[in-house]
Every structure is written in C-alpha cells, then in structure tokens.
Hints:
Elements: E1 9-12, H1 16-25, E2 30-31, H2 47-65, E3 70-80, E4 83-85, H3 91-101, E5 105-115, E6 120-131, H4 136-144, E7 165-169, H5 172-176, H6 180-189
Parallel strand pairs: 1-2, 1-3
Antiparallel strand pairs: 3-4, 3-5, 5-6, 6-7
Amino acid sequence: MEFKTNRQVVLASGSPRRSELMGVAGIPFIVRKPQVQEPPIRQRENPANYAERLAALKARDVAEREPGAVVIGADTVVHQEGRAYGKPSGREEAKAFLESLCGSVHSVSTGVCVTDGELERTFSVTTDVEFREAPHWLIDRYVDSGDPMDKAGAYGIQSGGALFVKGIRGDYYAVVGLPIADMFEVLDEMGVISAGKGDGL
C-alpha cells in the first residue's frame, strides 16, 4: 500500500531497519540523520520514558534543520529488571548481554516522537520478549557474525537474533525499531495523511 501525505515527512534516523518499516507503512519520506549525542539513562528513569526522551531529542534536532516538515524520531531500549541494554561496546559485552537475556523474559521499549517544530506527539510501545536457553557456541557464532554490534540488547529479532526467540507479547515491529501502526495513527490524527490516502490501495 502507498499513501499520500500533504507535507514532507522526514525520518530522523540512520537505521536501515526503520527505513524499511517506513516503506512497509507506505508513507513517502526522506531520511536525515540526527546529529546528537545520546545521553545515558538517568538513575531510576523508566526505560520507556528514556526511549521517548531520546526519540524527542533526535526529532527536534532534525526539525530545526527541516522547517515545515513533519519529523519522526525513534529510539529503542532493551531492558530487564531495571537494567537497560544499549548497543554493545564490543564482542565481550555483546556476548555478556546475550548470556544474561537467554532463558528469561525481557522488555523492548521503542519511543517515537512526531513533530513539525510546533506540534509534538511522543509515545512509546513496550513488547515482552522471551529468549530460549542457548548453548554458548550459538551465542559465540551469532556474535562473530557482527550482527549484534549496532543493535540495542545485542540482537536483531528480524535477523540472526530470531534463533533465540521463544515468543513475544506485543508489537513485533516495536522490537525491530518502529511501531508502524501506532505511528501511522498519530500521523493521521495530526492530519499528515492526505484525503487521497486510499488512492494507492
């Protein structure tokens, strides 16, 4: 499906996965990478709120450089029992993350901020993911593939990380990095999706 928009939509992200999901949603867009340094999570900060804070930081940064456009920022945080798992700093940390997550349930929160520089809507979607127990050789093999290195929690559910997943409860696309149904609803409520939205059906 393809939909029409009455304003330029900008994805404030360098993530190829988020670009792919925007394509799935059928929304025409351009990409602009935010130029911000991500601050660490605050003490006792809720991980979902942290994801929203980072998403807003990214969206506002790009909105300043794209006047008149509707900018979408997003950030994903993997967390378990109050601990947030960011992108691993290297092989050993990636391995430690996966060893900690295997055989248990963790949560993935993706924060989204949609702004045009004046009006702003921010929300988050949290999904629970259960990992199987995994042998050390499988974790080593996955880490050696390089796939975990640019992903929160050191895994991609849409790629090799799928081998660890026993089940999920919630929005799969939020785990990948962008809850597209909720995002589309916000864009529609903000009037970004034009009256000709059925033309591409």
